[in-house]
Amino acid sequence: MPCANAIAAVKPGPMAPPLLHLTDIHLTFGGTGLLDGAELMLRAGERLCLIGRNGSGKSTLLKIASGEVEPDKGRVFLQPGTTVRYLPQEPDFSGAKTVLEYVEAGLAPGDDRHRAVYLLEQLNVAGSLDPATLSGGEARRAALARVLAPEPDILLLDEPTNHLDLPAIEWLERELSGLRSALILISHDRRFLETLSSSTVWLDRGRTRQLDRGFAHFETWRDKVLEEEELEAHKLGRKIAMEEDWLRYGVTARRKRNVRRLANLHALRAERVEKVAANTRARETVTMAAAKGEASGKLVAEMTAVSKRFGDKIILNDFSFKLNRGDRVGIVGPNGAGKTTLIKLLLGNLNPDSGQIRLGTNLETLTLDQRRESLDPNTILKDALTGGGRDMLHVGGEQRHVISYMKDFLFIPEQARTPVNRLSGGERGRLMLARALARPSNLMVLDEPTNDLDLETLDLLQEMLADYDGTLILVSHDRDFLDRVVASTIGFEGNGRWLEYAGGYSDMLAQRKGAKQEEAPPQKKTSKPAPVSAPSAPATKKRKLSFNEKHALETLPSEMERLESEIATHNSTLADADLFTRDPELFQKTADALSAAEAALAAAEERWLELEMLREELEASS
User: Fold this and answer.
1) Options 1.10.287.380, 3.40.1190.10, 3.40.640.10, 2.10.109.10; which CATH number does 544-621 get?
2) Is it the case that residue 294 has pLDDT exceeding 80?
3) 3-state class of 331 per DSSP?
4) What is the pLDDT of residue 279?
5) Rounded mean pLDDT of the chain?
6) Distance between CA 439 and CA 498 in Å, rounded?
């Protein structure tokens, strides 16, 4: 449990009575306690996000709130007359002959039936379709139409963005922002949660903590709670088990390391700006022979004036692109735009109608699309990783014990003999990642790897990709993940046209906006008399880094290294479980020094990143 100060800091003040209130909820599955006194309160108009690791009980708590599951103990209060609609991860279409019939079945007497038709049109799903024939994305959009159509008092949404493309996700954000309904959201999509949430509930070890601020503030708050909890554990003289320590408190360390990784990504993007510009000029002026000479020894794949269509549908139209060793490229576009076809062409698995495709040498390609049907549901976790009958497996050319490798993917040793069919959707996603990433590769193609993964696993995946030495192609609808991982983005522009942009998804949007402003016709000049001109002001001097800013930028890296070394020394001292009993004064002095060093490191990292981004901005504008 966190210390009393951390809880008191986030207790809400007196407000309107709740529409929904879950009190002291307990639930046990198969002898294992899942919920242990969980609480959840939702008021009219509130937008609450429910955060927790896969398998922590988030979906179960939402089912209890919807009335689908009865708790072993506790109270569920729903304000009389309150309407509730629940979106499960896997909707049930049984009994419905058409999509429209399925959506209308969610309406109550007096609800506007035209809204069901309107929502299906907005979500681009034909109401006449048989639900049994729907793709994953179509099924998710139909299920969304069903819960949104009644405009209920409470909407309970479990992973609403799964299987949706970016246009549909952005439409859903706008639609939910305009609703009067109170919301409880479970999602792995950081940008979606940041846009919509006004408060956050963290479900951890069966209990809940509430932060009366949106998701954008969650991770900083969580890290502080965990640090305080760890210090309390030391003061009480308890030794934290190594597995639990790595799984839980390692989150904070990973997050701090990612600050530096973000800086490295900025450097990659700056380099990619030059490459994109150079490649554009090369396509216009340089011959194939010259391009071949430039890419010698570094080329992964190159497409030159490639076109592809299926029937009347144009997938690619005169597309040229060069992929070099070490590039990190994102591919974005609506479902059906041709992202998979583009990858097949780029990898040489599909022939173009016209144009040329050239592949590099010695490619070892790893493709991961997270199709989990390849997993035998009755196989235990350990055998799914090793192939059965062994405790060791090959990972990156070396032998690893399966338990050690499991821990890399946030599995605990006790799960080694858990059957696959007992794992949550997110845990199966982690298992697929673990299986795939054990194989050696120098070109990784990830197609929607973030589906069903919790936020901690996404942090882990981001860290692994940052350390990956090879070339990366990422297809994703997760805007935040794209911004954190890729150095350039290929975006669909319509009618078979694709363009490469330097940077992540947000950078692509900014460049598109800038291009549209440049293309806008100039406004017509009116024949108003010219105003009397004021004395001309001296030209504004271009902003440059000050001497102090330059000095800080140069010296902060060594200061951060010194602080990291100091923190490691203090942690090593505090790792002695008997220190508090033997020498409480030394323990307190070391704990205080550790807190001060960690605060100084966080401030230094933030200042360095701020100055580095300012430097890049000033150089770009000069």
Assistant:
1) 1.10.287.380
2) no
3) strand
4) 44
5) 81
6) 31
